[in-house]
Amino acid sequence: MQTTSAVVLGAGQAGLALSFLLGTAGVDHVVLDRGGPAQRWRSQSWESLRLLTPNWLSRLPGWEYTGPDPAGFMTAGEVAGHLAAYAAASRAPVVGGARVLSVRRTGDGYRVATTAGDWNARTVVVATGWCDRPYVPPVAAGLPRSVRQLTPATYRRPSALPDGGVLVVGASASGVQLADELAASGRPVLLAVGAHTRLPRRYRGLDILWWLDAMGVLDRPVPAGRPGPPSLQLAGRPDGRDVDLPTLAGRGVTLAGRLSRVDGSRLVFADDLLASTAAADDRLRRLLARIDAYALRTGLAGEIDPAAPVTGIRAAGPAEVDLRAAGIETVVWATGYRRAYPWLHVPVLDSAGEIRHARGATAAPGLYVLGMRGQSRRNSSFLDGVRHDAATVATRVLADLGATDRRGAAA
Fold first, then answer.
1. Number of helices (H), then strands (E), in the chain
2. Global pTM value
């Protein structure tokens, strides 16, 4: 049994950002991960995956992108290398191969049991991230056994799939990127579309995230208890091309509404494609109008490209599709993620199994969470945005520990 002041669970961007701040403050701590720094980026991403955010928007405490392509988009492997270099440069006390078995209250702290040993600590921060376990909806159980089912965590490349068409369920960032890649490989693709936030990759000659960062939209606080906006429909391609529904339709992808039912080989879709895309287009038009106003107010309007209109889709999509007739042999569930904490034996979970928290603080003294989507800001789960929440949680950990738990203190 080892003793430390703080245990951080997870060596992704959230855990490493917090580790940097704790180390700078002289707090004795350990970062535990089932693999090592950026393990999920290495093991649970498809081969062509890139960041949605441009490289310059990869700011972490004491660390930023300094490579040759600040306007580009790092591959998953490059992100893993970026974070591994961060861990090395900050001398983060990462213990790899430490799969968590249990976290329990003990006295005035916690006991953390892992496959790499056990630790006692005054504070514990769960930084295992937003993208924990891919969510596959119950409707998947109705598919024939002959149909191969994948998620973004298990999909790798088009050539690894069985011959035939592919149904992609979900039209946020992962779904549209996979549908685009599969269509480019020559496969018939059917995309089931739900609620989403449509964004162009560039607007008036500048990356859309440049605008959102400059206007402070990304740092805008998320009201506690309110759901955030639907996930982004965006891609970080080297060529900067848009990957949205009109683009996919132009590639030959068949668009449909939400997948509502599966009866053997029969797929039934909701009649909501036009409504969901119209809502996304309306939100986009309002955002672009705000950007236009900002450009005019700041004197940029005369130096940038003219505004472009938003074009939508017009086809309502099929109500039903027969898997066999359409030749669909594979389904990719790009339907988001859920979290699971079977090892967390502290009463802080809600009825859905999520950790209840307010800006990262749970009801259990000394237990925090970091890296959640919308934890405090719209960009809380971004590589760039986690730094704000890391600073908040670090401040609370320092307040819990006090001076006696710092390195070099008499205690």
1. 9, 21
2. 0.93
